[in-house]
Design a protein that fits this description.
It is an enzyme of class 1 (oxidoreductase). Residues 34-384 form the FAD dependent oxidoreductase domain. This is Putative oxidoreductase ordL. The structure is a single chain. By secondary structure, this protein is of the alpha/beta class. It has a domain at 10-16 and 24-74 and 190-257 and 348-417: FAD/NAD(P)-binding domain, CATH 3.50.50. Helices cover 34% and strands 24% of the residues. It has twelve helices and 16 strands. The protein has helices spanning 13-17, 42-53, 86-93, 95-118, 139-151, 163-170, 189-202, 250-255, 316-327, 371-386, 391-397, 407-427, and strands spanning 31-38, 58-61, 126-132, 158-161, 178-186, 206-208, 215-219, 222-227, 230-239, 257-266, 281-284, 291-294, 300-307, 336-346, 353-358, 361-365. Strands 1, 2, 6, 7, 8, 9, 15 and 16 form an eight-stranded mixed β-sheet that branches. Strands 4-5-3-11-12-13-10-14 form an eight-stranded mixed β-sheet. A hairpin with a 5-residue loop joins strand 12 and strand 13 (300-307). The relative contact order is 0.19. The model has no long low-confidence stretch (mean pLDDT 93).
Length: 428
Amino acid sequence: MPYQSPISPGRSWYEDSAGPRPEYAALDGDRTCDVVIVGGGFTGLSAAAHLAKAGANVVLTEAHRFGDGASGRNGGQLGTGQRAWAEEMEAEYGFSRAKALFDLAEEAKAHLIEFAAVNRIEIDYMPGQMSVAHKKRHVDDYKAHAEIMASRFGYSHISFMDARETAERLGSTAYFGGTRDTGTGHIHPLKLVIGTAKVAAEAGAQLFEQTPATGITSVGGKVNVTTPKGTITAEKCLFGVNAYGGALEPVSAAHIMPIGSFIGATVPLGADTKVLPGGEAVDDSRFVVRYFRKTRDGRLLFGGREIYAVNDPKDIHIHIRRQIAELYPDLRDVEITHGWGGYVGITVPRKPFVREVMPNVISIGGYSGHGVMLSNFFGKLYAETVSGNRDRLKLIEDLKIPPFPGGRRWRTPLLFLALNWFALRDRI
């Protein structure tokens, strides 16, 4: 029987196309180390790789298998900048800080591509991303954004597309305009997970799957992470579970909310398809965003259904096909070979959450759908912090991230109501 993640619904096309997926043993016995990392997604594995290469003694624990969470199951789009547009960051934080945050994100993009190349990780990188307006009133914002990025932030890779160009490049008349970014692209995320884990292990990091953390304490300058069959004692701890932390660490849980996002993969569309002839990835202007792209073998990967409740839908294929047909009527009967989901960690302002949640324990997450690029780099920034340079991570730590309202009891139903209100507005 093919492996099925116990924490994420469906089996992804990524799992069936990634090649060998090594398994790592579970922890059995106590360990002492310099740094303990809880969470084997992009953030944790990247941190482990960079720390181990720098000579640190690192132990990483993952409750299930590497890539079972959002890191191995996401849309694969890198994007540009932070989750919020640079001009929005400028309005909130001023130009110098907004520019520093944008430049940090650009470095994150370059780092990911370089890390894969240097370590010979084949991530199936394909260039290009389009952001498109699902309502006519948004078009002027996209046009202004392209101009601002070039004139104020020195990023000349974004160009404005009118309705005609948008239709030609998408192969669909469902959108009114948008932007095309030739300075970014999209990847096979599970291949990056597998490759990063291999780099970390070869550098000497001790990696353990099927090893849930059952408790974290920080007393007397030491951090203790308990697991079912052993305790890890360390000088420092990275808590990198993002949407999958549950109640393990209450400060992170108060600031990072899991929402479900679901993707379908079609059969290869063939060389004569009019869908995305340039091979770019796409995201749209809906609050409940739709995102889609073609793979190297011509499949359409389409993500467009988010849920804010704890129950997973059993009808991923039906809903994804319906949304595909809204944009591409000729694909209303297309065969969907895979349907899967996972949980994304979001924050109230949709900006990353980085905080020292207890002495020597730093939590990193809440990428809010922009984590493919940022999370890998934040793992590197955490490794810099351990070596004594916290300045760059501090740029993110200083962002204003309030907790979700309602406390533990009410925050999920309140978020459900709020985000479904925004989903309703997307249709009006």
